[in-house]
Amino acid sequence: MSNLSHRCHWAQSTNQQLVTYHDQEWGKPHLESQELFSLLSLEMMQAGLSWSTILKKRAAFMTAFHQFDYHQVAKMKPELPDLLQNAAIIRNQRKLTAIINNAQAVINLEATGISFSDFLWDYVHHQTIKHDVPDATAVPKTIPLTDQVSRDLKQRGFQFTGPVVCYSFFQAAGLINDHENQCPFR
């Protein structure tokens, strides 16, 4: 394997949790609907915060949201007051409400005969889009594709899924590969 010092700029860190996330998870194709729902939820929570913060709280989120089993999460509206008191997670009411709402939106999507995974992977024709990323400055915040995904998700009742969240989500879930060209994990 090539030199690990050539990792993506954002993963050249002393934060081992961030490095491990980059090396083992970020940008790898995630195909299961529950896993994709989990990643979308965490990307929503990350908006305006650092990914390191989310990684530190990920285990607590997994526990609080039933391992992101969207069938269980969709029934959590009565638990919102408890979530807002849970210091182990980020207590942003809009974001927490959106996760619960989005779980119901996934269920509604599935009721039409389309899995959340197929819905998302259809946008990229079931093949990861590989961008030319010579360095971190070449990575956009959004692209027309994720602008469209954002609009389509909102039409289907999803919340807090703006174009920037969708782009970050597509990167994390491996629908888009934005590892820098010199990164050994590309």
Automatic annotation (TrEMBL):
> From the UniProt record, which GO molecular function terms apply?
DNA-3-methyladenine glycosylase activity; metal ion binding
Name the SUPFAM superfamilies for this protein: DNA-glycosylase
The answer on whether this UniProt entry bears the keyword Transcription reads no
Q: Which residues bind Zn(2+)?
A: 8, 22, 179, 183
Which GO biological process entries does UniProt record here? base-excision repair
Q: Look up keyword Chloroplast and say if it applies.
A: no
Q: Which domain of life is it from?
A: Bacteria
Tell me the keywords, alphabetical order.
Metal-binding, Zinc
Gene3D superfamilies, sorted: Hypothetical protein, domain 2 (1.10.340.30)
Report the PANTHER family cross-referenced here. DNA-3-METHYLADENINE GLYCOSYLASE 1, DNA-3-METHYLADENINE GLYCOSYLASE I
Q: What is this protein called?
A: DNA-3-methyladenine glycosylase I
Origin organism is: Fructilactobacillus cliffordii
Lineage start? Bacteria, Bacillati, Bacillota, Bacilli, Lactobacillales
